[in-house]
Design brief:
CATH class of the largest domain: Alpha Beta
Oligomer: single chain
Number of domains: 2
CATH topology of the largest domain: Rossmann fold
Shape: globular
Strand order of the largest sheet: 4-5-13-10-11-12
Strand content: 15-25%
Bound molecules: zinc ion
Length: 372
């Protein structure tokens, strides 16, 4: 059963989900699910190991999920700013980042709907993940990346068999190249920035935390935020579970459109003039779903916090000294957790989860330069 409806977040047009429609064809707004059912312990598929345990929280039921038997990632006690915190290690998913949650679900649906070739634009973890799941499903895959991207990040996608095409020009030029390629018959734009099913897959991280805590919710979660799928996924999952932990988005100060919008009281993000940062996974100047992310942060009584580069590198090394090897983008959330505890925003005795989105092995060169 692969049919469900999507609604345009701009003018409310409702239409059946179509593999060719990754945004509203009339007004180019993001598409969203119309409703999400309440989820209870009885709905868990106890025969599945990880994210597919929560398949009944999805809007479709794939006959054959495209899966690498993803594990429920570890929830590990660590110490941050002297306080006990739980670190959720999504770098231990099959291709090394949380993106596998979204791609397993999105590729499952696209394959079931007859798509034979997936196209994505990314120079990092999303490229590796879509390529891995396309390989698993036997689909063709093309990844478009900026000509300036560091080649290291694309090796994994190429090894999975993806065709990697480097585009000279702006980030928008890269996206347009992918959009155009996806117009071919049988192809689909499997965009992690736009596709609502990607977020529906990512939300499994919050369901796992709930089950790992004995079916209780934490008081607060902290996650890195670029296009915001970890925050929005948690928001949707906690809604289905009937609770509202505080949500905190961690951004590099070098690119912090969510922080800027919250500080100014704006309802939507505006393009942020970004500077270079080690946290390359969250360098999104104006997230597609900025309005929805801001609303979730506010309604949950959480917020967003901008971290200096030095705070990010300090956090990466502090995590590593506890045996937790994360990439710089993940270290942003670790650094944000430290700041929130030191500011008293997270109080003594509160149960807080920090999402570590990517494996440190993804960033060997950058981390090598840090430690000299
Ligand atoms: Zn529309």
């Amino acid at each position: 059963m692969s049919g469900f409806d999507l609604r345009c977040s701009g003018y409310g047009r409702v239409a059946a989900a179509d593999p060719k429609e990754w945004r509203c064809p009339e007004c180019a707004s993001p598409l969203e699910l119309i409703d999400r059912p309440a989820f209870t312990t009885e709905m868990i598929d106890r025969s599945a190991p990880g994210l597919w345990r929560y398949r009944r929280a999805l809007p479709f039921a794939p006959e054959r999920p495209v899966t690498l038997n993803e594990p429920s990632t570890p929830l590990v006690p660590v110490t941050i700013a002297g306080a006990p915190v739980l670190a959720k290690l999504d770098g231990l998913l099959p291709t090394g980042s949380f993106k596998d949650r979204g791609m397993s679900v999105l590729v499952s649906w696209l394959a079931e709907r007859g798509v034979t070739h997936v196209v994505e634009d990314s120079s990092g973890n999303a490229a590796a993940s879509i390529a891995g799941y396309a390989a698993r499903a036997g689909l063709g895959c093309t990844v478009y990346a900026p000509a300036t991207a560091s080649p290291g990040k694309l090796v994994q996608a190429a090894a999975f068999g993806a065709e990697v095409k480097l585009i000279t020009g702006s980030r928008d030029d890269v996206a347009h190249a992918a959009e155009n390629a996806a117009l071919e018959p049988g192809a689909a734009y499997a965009t992690h920035n736009w596709h609502p099913l990607f977020i529906e897959g990512v939300k499994s991280w919050a369901f796992e935390v709930w089950e790992q805590l004995g079916f209780e919710l934490p008081d607060a979660i902290v996650a890195p935020a670029g296009s915001g799928s970890l925050i929005l996924g948690a928001w949707h999952a906690f809604g289905q579970l009937g609770g509202r932990p505080r949500l905190y988005a961690a951004q590099a100060a070098a690119c912090a459109p969510l922080v800027a919008a919250l500080d100014s009281g704006a309802e939507a993000t505006t393009p942020f003039e970004r500077k270079p940062s080690l946290a390359e996974g969250i360098m999104i100047a104006n997230p597609v779903r900025g309005r929805a992310i801001l609303s979730a942060l506010r309604e949950s009584n959480g917020g967003a916090i901008a971290l200096a580069e030095q705070d990010i590198t300090d956090a990466l090394l502090a995590a590593a000294r506890q045996g937790v090897y994360i990439e710089p983008t993940s270290a942003t959330a670790w650094a944000a957790t430290k700041a929130l505890i030191e500011q008293g925003e997270i109080a003594d005795g509160e149960r807080v989860v920090v999402l570590c989105s990517g494996n440190g092995l993804k960033a060997t060169q950058a981390i090598g330069e840090l430690i000299g």
